[in-house]
Amino acid sequence: MQTKEILINCARFIILVFLQVFLLNNINLLGYINPYLYILFILLYPSTGNQTLLIFLSFLLGLSVDIFEDSGGVHAAACAFIAYIRPVVLKYSFGISYEYNSVKIERAAPTEKFIYVASIIVIHNFIMFALEIFSFDHILLLLKSTLFSGIFTFILIMGSLILINKKVK
């Protein structure tokens, strides 16, 4: 990565943690709907970047949210997992574009972007809520929390991507 990309990723990391911790964690609709914008860092990390560094940074990202939220590591585990599985999701979302390292989420086709973002959000939320609830007796709560928080997170992330895309043009 170039120096400019490193600075952009550092700023993105810090801004997303602060937004999540001080603003978005205070939004709790109906007791189980909470947006998780901080995973935008993982979504926007360059596909040509170092995979090991991404997993480490994702763990730190989740750990930062866990420290402020006192949630016992569920965010760190979910973030590390989605960073680990991200190449697979990129491959089935973008296909041949990923193979040639020409994936830019800001310039991707709407269907590819939808599949990529939705997949990462669902995986993240399912793992996070499964670790948080940790009981098969509450499987309905797990699915409901995953679905509704996922929808809210998806809307927030897609809105952010539209804003980013307008700034790029």
Automatic annotation (TrEMBL):
Keywords: Membrane, Transmembrane, Transmembrane helix. It comes from the Bacteria. The chain crosses the membrane at residues 6-24, 36-61, 73-94, 114-134, 146-164. The keyword Membrane applies. This is Rod shape-determining protein MreD. It comes from Aequorivita ciconiae. The lineage of its organism: Bacteria, Pseudomonadati, Bacteroidota, Flavobacteriia, Flavobacteriales.
